[in-house]
Design brief:
The complex is a heterodimer of chains A (about 280) and B (about 110). Chain A is of the alpha/beta class. Helices cover about 30% and strands about 15% of the residues of chain A. In chain A, the strands form two sheets. A five-stranded parallel β-sheet of chain A has the order 1-5-4-2-3. The longest helix of chain A is centred in the middle third of the chain and has 12 residues. Chain B has one domain: Immunoglobulins (Immunoglobulin-like, Sandwich). In chain B, the strands form three sheets. Chain B has a four-stranded antiparallel β-sheet, with no helix packed on it. Chain B has a three-stranded mixed β-sheet with strand order 6-1-9, with no helix packed on it. Chain B starts with about 20 loop residues before the first strand and ends with a strand. The chains are: A alpha/beta (about 280), B mainly beta (about 110).
């Protein structure tokens, strides 16, 4: 993967608003902003309501994913272009999700909704309707998804990258500072994890930094990208952002996103925990 | 006191346990005032970034339709960076547990 295949610019979006092969999908933790205005032709997926199983803490099943895409008019041949607020956190989570279910052509708008708004580009309220399809997903590709036992085994042996803010890493905060302070049962981080906040991979306008800057970011923090890497955060969406950076922009294949993240690890009984910078 | 329909400062604190939270919140308004009171229109969909005392990014929120935003921070000095089309504004703010830090920012 590379920037050319994984990202599109806002200019590309403007030129492809009426491209029938493209479906734009706004993904976020709530869909209020979508209702207030969205990119013309875009549909929306709600991070929790559409993409979480709801009963079991897990992704939705292959059958439910197929039904979700089919009813929204996304076919296996569609170019799915994702974007969202929150610096594309939930859009990159959805990107990772589409890859897990084997979608061929999925891309992300560089800068997401924020850059679109900062450029004062048009937003519309009309909700499009698209003819239903019969989407067929692949079996889950867990080569990009880490589970808790693998994370515990990785302590001291593989790269573990904690992409939360320094205050969450040290144990001062339990959640990002714009959210109520709730999360795992305890605060801190996974021992031997390097704290490389997701935000260091992004420019202020939400676009990604250059490949040279990104490579220097991880290597400068002592991450040997030749070794296996697991990224985590609190609920797995910010780490999907950093997974996207390493796996898709830098083309490093052996990177997994631990979507259980601190809300799971910080509630496990008896596992090792570290605090402090 | 109302400012163009928006409550000066941040959103309602109903339901927020201030004994446990160090809240930084406020409202982004366009320039304009009457008798020294800011009365510019609220700026929706501005982006407010919270940086820690080392200048490190900590969080970011868009303003709501009333131009308001809120952070749950920790006690200490923080920097707010406001981004809107053609605008970038920075200011320092102190947070403390119990008393929300309320700011009105005009751009």
């Amino acid at each position: 993967m590379s920037r050319e295949t994984a990202l599109v610019t806002t200019d590309w979006v403007s030129e492809n608003l009426n491209n029938p092969k493209v479906v734009f999908v706004e993904v976020d933790e709530d869909t209020t902003l979508y209702e207030q205005g969205h990119i013309e032709g875009a549909i929306t997926f709600h991070w929790r309501d559409d993409l979480q199983d709801g009963l079991v803490r897990d992704l939705i099943s292959k059958e439910k994913f197929e039904a979700l895409l089919s009813k929204n008019g996304i076919s296996n041949e569609t170019t799915v272009v994702l974007y969202g607020g929150n610096n594309n956190w939930f859009a990159t989570y959805a990107y990772w999700y589409f890859k897990i279910y084997g979608h061929q052509d999925v891309r992300l708008i560089d800068g997401g909704r924020k850059l679109w708004e900062l450029k004062a580009l048009p937003l519309v309220k009309e909700v499009p309707s698209r003819a239903a399809t019969r989407y067929v997903a692949k079996e889950r590709d867990n080569s990009i998804r880490a589970f808790r036992d693998e994370v515990i085994a990785a302590i001291g042996t593989r790269n573990i990258v904690d992409v939360r803010s320094p205050a969450e890493f040290s144990g001062e905060l339990a959640a990002p500072a714009h959210l109520p302070q709730e999360g795992g049962q305890i605060k801190g981080h996974i021992p031997t994890a390097k704290n490389i906040p997701w935000s260091k991979a992004a420019n202020e306008d939400g676009t990604f930094r250059s490949e040279a800057e990104l490579k220097a970011l991880y290597e400068g923090a002592g991450v040997d990208l030749a070794n296996d890497t697991i990224a985590y955060c609190r609920i797995g969406e910010r780490s999907a952002f950093s997974w996207f950076v390493m796996h898709e922009l830098l083309g490093v294949n052996n990177v997994k996103n631990y979507d259980g993240s601190w809300t799971e690890y910080g509630s496990l009984v008896g596992v090792p925990v570290a605090v402090g910078a | 006191m109302k400012t163009c329909g928006a409550t000066p400062g941040g959103p309602s604190l109903d339901g927020v346990d201030l004994t446990k939270q160090s809240v930084i919140q406020g409202v982004i308004l366009k320039d304009g005032q009457s008798d020294g009171v800011p009365n510019g229109a609220p700026v929706a969909s501005a982006h407010v970034r919270l940086l820690d005392s080392q200048g490190e990014f900590t969080a970011e929120v868009p303003t709501n339709t009333d131009g308001q935003f809120r952070f749950f921070a920790a006690p200490g000095t923080w920097t707010l960076v406001v981004l809107a089309p053609g605008v970038r504004k920075e200011l320092s703010v102190d947070a403390a547990t119990g008393v929300p830090a309320e700011v009105v920012i005009q751009i």
